[in-house]
UniProtKB/TrEMBL annotation:
Its EC number is 1.4.4.2. The lineage of its organism: Bacteria, Pseudomonadati, Bdellovibrionota, Oligoflexia, Silvanigrellales. NCBIfam families: PRK04366.1. It catalyses: N(6)-[(R)-lipoyl]-L-lysyl-[glycine-cleavage complex H protein] + glycine + H(+) = N(6)-[(R)-S(8)-aminomethyldihydrolipoyl]-L-lysyl-[glycine-cleavage complex H protein] + CO2. This is glycine dehydrogenase (aminomethyl-transferring). It is an enzyme of class 1 (oxidoreductase). Pfam families: GcvP2_C, GDC-P. GO terms for biological process: glycine decarboxylation via glycine cleavage system.
Length: 492
């Protein structure tokens, strides 16, 4: 066995076998001490549940496993390597200051069972984060518990359902829009609701009439992604909120795109009843392969009684956890949520301040619109309007040259860049959804723009990309349909 790349014969680029292929009998990573307590006959105890044959697992030492995964990690593309313009995902730089604070021993050696006198500082951080998120949204209460955007949505829907139930009403319908994120109808279905979807108008905004058409007494709430997935701020949002409230239906705002509106607009001012944050997008906590999510929610007065417990409260400079809310929906996450993410978000907010946060959004909008201005004559913009932090293009102009959305995306990999989001949002055919974020320099944006231009004007669209990545283009259908879930050892 050697480390030569089988294809190129080079040994700078390591080829990597499966751990199963590397397995050698007797290899182990952890040694246990000799038994010094009476032996228990587990076979007798668990007879029925014991497997017939020993599980065949790869047998390897710790350094072999560590090297395997470390080598694989160098195959990955990451935000720390270059632009990562995935629309809707907000892949932006994670400031190292956040990491420094989150990794300090005072923070990461705390235990959730530590007595309350020892954890005052931690509770203060959580309390301050809640207060800051209240300010950002203009809403009166926040729960930090949900651990992802989609769990924030689900929690919000549980609150909405508790609100109606408390009034003795069972409402079974949630309205969503075709410009909403896919998690919106998914969360609503998970919470037991029927879903009615409204189509956006030609101009990319939800119209009042389309909401009126489906707004019955059975509607518990409407879920709107704002800014929507076309990158537009829903201009009728205030009137939509009013319409809903007249029928005692609530307005859920998917706030994953808050990166575009920090300090510029507040959901509390236009009538939102619940909104979830994605701390891992807007507030720079690492995500994707880099860390767990965090999806706090902010709510209007109506929903406060139902918020999850425990809630962090302050009295005369002392912090405590309050569990006594009889109408609460209970817990949605163990302990208090993904605390490590709170630290990073809190640190980010404190470092930037209100003024800084507004600049974040202004620059995110500026960067997206710079890309739009440089590419609008190259790529078609199916629904044009006032784009905020992201722009949705498609491949209509490339019909003749054959550079379809998928080919453009794969070719970008050969330019050393992560492709944008493709074929989403669904309301745009063959979408290429670009969100550069505010943390890209003009140089990096220009490299991206130039790469796209070079790709779509190059003659041969029949060349299969990527060519220079560790793996050439993968047969996606085969990969999805013919899963290899078992492994045959050589000696079997
Ligand atoms: C990312 C995203 C979500 C889902 O958030 P997760 O943290 O991945 O669960 C929901 N809505 C929008 C608009 C998003 O961009």
């Amino acid at each position: 066995m050697n480390y030569l790349n089988k294809k190129t014969g080079q040994n700078i680029v390591l080829e990597e076998e499966l751990l199963f292929d590397r397995s050698h009998k007797g290899g182990y990573g952890i040694g246990l001490p000799k038994l010094d307590v009476p032996e228990v006959n587990y076979k007798k105890l668990y007879n029925k549940n014991l497997r017939k044959n020993k599980a065949r697992l790869p047998e390897l030492s710790e350094p072999e496993v560590v090297r395997h995964f470390t080598r694989l990690s160098t195959w990955n593309y990451a935000i720390d390597l270059g632009i990562y313009p995935l629309g809707s995902c907000t892949m932006k730089h994670n400031p190292r200051l956040n990491e420094e604070i989150a990794r300090s021993s005072e923070i990461c050696e705390a235990h959730p069972y530590d007595p309350i006198e020892w954890t005052q500082g931690h509770l203060q951080i959580m309390y301050e984060l809640q207060e800051d998120l209240k300010k950002v949204t203009g809403m009166p209460a926040v729960s930090l518990q949900p651990s992802a955007g989609a769990q924030g949505e689900f929690t919000g829907l549980l609150l909405i359902s508790a609100y109606h139930r408390n009034k003795g009403k069972i409402k079974k319908t949630i309205i969503t829009a075709d410009t909403s994120h896919g998690t919106n109808p998914a969360s609503a279905a998970l919470a037991g609701y029927n879903i009615v979807q409204v189509q956006t108008g030609e101009d990319g905004y939800v119209t009042l009439d389309s909401v009126k058409d489906v707004l019955t007494d059975d509607v518990a709430a409407m879920m709107l992604t704002n800014p929507n997935t076309l990158g537009f701020f829903e201009k009728n949002i205030e009137q939509i909120a009013k319409l809903l409230h007249e029928k005692d239906a609530l307005l859920y705002i998917d706030g994953a795109n808050m990166n575009a509106v920090l300090g510029l607009s507040r959901p509390g001012d236009y009538g939102a009843d619940v909104i979830q944050f994605n701390l891992h997008k807007t507030f720079t906590t690492p995500h994707g392969g880099g860390g767990p999510g965090s999806g706090p929610i902010a709510v209007s007065e109506k929903l406060i009684p139902y918020l999850p417990i425990p809630r962090v409260e302050e009295k005369n400079g002392n912090y405590h956890l309050n569990y006594s809310f009889s109408k609460s929906i209970g817990r949605v996450k163990s302990f208090y949520g993904n605390y490590g993410m709170f630290i990073r978000a809190w640190c980010y907010i404190k470092a930037l301040g209100g003024e800084g946060l507004r600049k974040v959004s202004e620059n995110a909008i500026l960067n997206a619109n710079y890309i739009k201005s440089q590419l609008k004559d190259v790529l078609h913009i199916p629904v044009d309007g006032n784009h905020l932090h992201e722009v949705v293009f498609n491949d209509k102009n490339q019909k003749e040259s054959g550079w379809d959305t998928s080919k453009i995306a794969k070719a970008l990999i050969d330019y050393g860049m992560h492709p944008p989001t493709v074929y989403f949002p669904l309301c745009v055919k063959n979408a290429l959804m670009v969100e550069p974020t505010e943390t890209e320099s003009k140089d990096e944006l220009d490299r991206f723009i130039l790469s796209i231009k070079e790709i779509v004007t190059s003659k041969d669209s029949s060349v299969v990309h990527p060519k220079r990545a560790f793996r050439e283009k993968i047969d996606e259908v085969k990969a999805a349909r013919e899963l290899k879930l078992t492994y045959k050892f050589k000696d079997e």
